[in-house]
Design a protein that fits this description.
Layout (H helix, E strand, L loop, with lengths): L3 E3 L2 H13 L6 E6 L5 H13 L2 E6 L9 H5 L5 H10 L4 E3 L3 H4 L18 H4 L3 H16 L3 E5 L3 H13 L5 E5 L19 H6 L2 H20 L4 H21 L4 E10 L12 E10 L2 E10 L3
Parallel strand pairs: 1-4, 2-3, 2-5, 3-4, 5-6
Antiparallel strand pairs: 7-8, 8-9
The structure holds adenosine monophosphate.
């Protein structure tokens, strides 16, 4: 059955009510997206379809999470193809509302968070995570999913949403899904279509930098074991970040915004080898800003 599309909150709620009423205990999986869908998004939809009775995908380019209007204006828009891809992946309902439907005149409530929103991408994009938290909270209220699916590609977003759900006692399970990559390692992203041929080649530096970080972390662990104390942890994080940065610095088209090794869950400095580490990077290639990350276990 092809997926049905709804552009109003009332329409989607009515359809969900009717489907839920068809059987007691039917589960709803939800995949929020901003459109321009690729295989990364499709992997989330397939996972939601495989784990739930009803799958809802939202396609909404959320203006609140763009700090720069040029980035919003140039964001690729491919709604017809997106709807087809969602249907092929087995989605049941697609929610593609207008900006006015989501933010009617006078809507001025924002969801804010301290802590993990202030580091990494939050440093250069001060309004971004409040925009994400606000729209995700609204979408959770509209869809009322049992489980929501997010990509590990946006690791900071995933950490922040896990915290949102914990902090506000939202009854939804957050499922993180692995990053889908091109054959040469580049993480799939709607923004990759902005890269010209030279920039596309240069963009492999993100994955190569993460591979260098993994190697450095492995070497350091083999040589000196788990760090003891704040100073040793900071020195390990700096060494691993430097190894990744050297790869990025060697790519003339890349301008590094950040490279950091942090606690994968809290995004605070590392201090415990039983926790996972996240190496996160953001790079500007031409006019396009790309992010990527890898998670490493620290206990061997
Ligand atoms: P976006 O449309 O960029 O907001 O992304 C919607 C969802 O798809 C987010 O949870 C992203 O983390 C996820 N996503 C984007 N790219 C990928 C990818 N290459 N692999 C897995 N998930 C992804």
């Amino acid at each position: 059955m092809p997926a049905k599309t709804y552009d109003t909150i009332a329409g989607l709620r009515g359809a969900l009510y009717a489907r839920r009423a068809a059987g007691a205990g039917l589960s709803v999986g939800f995949v929020p997206t901003m459109g321009a869908l690729h295989e990364g998004h499709v992997s989330l939809v397939r996972r939601a379809v495989s784990e739930n009775d009803i799958t809802v995908v939202s396609i909404f380019l959320n203006p609140l999470q763009f700090d720069e209007s040029a980035d919003l204006d140039s964001y690729p828009k491919t709604l017809d193809a997106d709807v087809r891809l969602c249907g092929e992946a087995g989605a049941d309902l697609i929610f593609c509302p207008s900006v006015r439907e989501v933010y009617p005149d006078g809507a001025s409530t924002r969801v804010e968070m301290d802590g993990p929103t202030d580091v990494l991408c939050g440093k250069s994009r001060p309004r971004h995570f409040s925009g994400v938290l606000t729209v995700v909270s609204k979408l959770f209220h509209i869809v009322e999913p049992d489980a929501a699916y997010f990509g590990e590609k946006d690791a900071q977003q995933l950490a922040v949403i896990r915290k949102l759900v914990r902090d506000l006692n939202m009854p939804v399970t957050i499922v993180g899904c692995p990053t889908v990559r091109e054959a040469d390692g580049l993480a799939m992203s709607s923004r990759n279509t902005h890269l010209n041929a030279d920039e596309r080649k240069a963009a492999t530096c993100l994955f190569r930098a993460l591979a260098a970080a993994r190697e450095k972390l492995g070497d350091a662990a083999a040589r000196s074991g788990a760090p003891r104390g704040e100073g040793e942890w900071a020195s390990l994080a700096a060494k691993v970040a430097d190894a990744a940065r050297a790869v990025l610095d060697a790519e003339p088209l890349a301008r590094t915004e950040y490279v950091e090794l942090l606690d994968a869950e809290t995004l605070a400095p590392l201090n415990d080898s039983s926790k996972a580490a996240l190496c996160a990077i953001a790079v500007q290639i031409g006019q396009t800003r790309l992010i990527d990350n890898m998670r490493f276990s620290l206990d061997g």
